[in-house]
Model the fold of this input.
Amino acid sequence: MRIATLLPSEMERVVNVNYPTTEAGREKKEIRMSRQMKKVMDLAPGSDGINVRVRVLEAGEPRVVETRSGSKTLSEALVGDETGRIGLTLWGDHAGKLRKGQVIEVQNAFTTAFRGKVQLNVGNRGSIQQLDDSSMVSAEEIPEESPEAPEGWRPRRQGYGRRPRGGFRR
Done:
C-alpha cells in the first residue's frame, strides 16, 4: 500500500471533495474554499491553487513560444508585495493584459522554478482581477528579495505521452 504525503493546501482540497452535496453542504464548502491569500516570499515551487495580491512592477509584451504541445502565447511580468518580488508568466488569453503600476489579485495560479527562482504562472484555470491602487504598497516599498527554489528541486514528472511503467506489456 502506498501512503501519500499531502501538503496542507492539498489536504484542504481533499476535505472539500468529501463534503455532502446538500444545499447547506455547498454553502459550507464555499466558505471552506474561501481564497486564502499568500505572500510572495511564502511561495514555493510545485504549488497550485495560489492566490496573491501584488503590484505590477514590469510588464512585457505577448510573444509566441514553441512547447512540446505546440505554439503557446505568453507574456512575462515582475510583480511584488510587501515581502518581495516574483516573476509572473501569463499564458494564453491572459498574455499582455497587465500594465506597469496596476494592483492585481491573481487567483488559482501555480508555481514553477527556473534558474533557481520560484515563478508564478497564470494559465487557463487562473484569473486576474484589477484592484484599487491604494490597497497595496508602492513600487518603491517592495523589497528586492525573491523566493528561491530549494537546491536540486525538480518538478514531478507528469508522464504525458509516455507508456506507464511496469505492468503488462503486449
The beta strands are 37-38, 48-59, 63-67, 70-81, 84-91, 103-114, 117-122, 127-130.
